């Protein structure tokens, strides 16, 4: 299925043709990472059932886990009321963060600075 085939889904991309995607662990709701997707990334995600994103730093399509093996199997895709943000509910295989951590959100910001999140 592509975006064009889902008549009620009309994503509102930003001026760069992207929208933010929150990768959330299916079952627990834990936020694993945030990335960006363009129309092609969303279409590939819906078609293949694995998370695809647009890498802003590399300016290329990014199939999560293609090189690391840490694939995100997509259980479902949710959109917010404005259709300008997505949630990919995923079954994460291996760590989600490129640092090797389970989630990219492993640090806490406080008035004193940065510390390890508990």
UniProtKB/TrEMBL annotation:
One of its GO terms (molecular function) is magnesium ion binding. Mg(2+) binds at residues 80, 82, 84. It is an enzyme of class 3 (hydrolase). Pathway: Amino-acid biosynthesis; L-histidine biosynthesis; L-histidine from 5-phospho-alpha-D-ribose 1-diphosphate: step 2/9; Amino-acid biosynthesis; L-histidine biosynthesis; L-histidine from 5-phospho-alpha-D-ribose 1-diphosphate: step 3/9. Residues 33-106 form the Phosphoribosyl-AMP cyclohydrolase domain. Its main location: cytoplasm. Catalyzes the hydrolysis of the adenine ring of phosphoribosyl-AMP. Belongs to the PRA-CH family. This is Phosphoribosyl-AMP cyclohydrolase. It comes from Parvularcula mediterranea.
């Amino acid at each position: 299925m592509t975006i064009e085939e889902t008549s009620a889904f009309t994503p509102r991309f930003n001026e760069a043709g992207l929208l933010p995607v929150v990768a959330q662990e299916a079952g627990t709701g834990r936020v694993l990472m945030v990335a960006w997707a363009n129309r092609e990334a969303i279409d590939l995600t819906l078609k293949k059932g694995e998370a695809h994103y647009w890498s802003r730093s590399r300016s290329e399509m990014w199939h999560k886990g293609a090189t690391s093996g840490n694939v995100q199997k997509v259980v479902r895709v949710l959109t917010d009321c404005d259709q300008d943000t997505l949630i990919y509910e995923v079954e994460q295989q291996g760590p989600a963060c490129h640092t090797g951590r389970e989630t990219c959100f492993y640090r806490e910001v406080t008035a004193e600075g940065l510390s390890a999140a508990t």
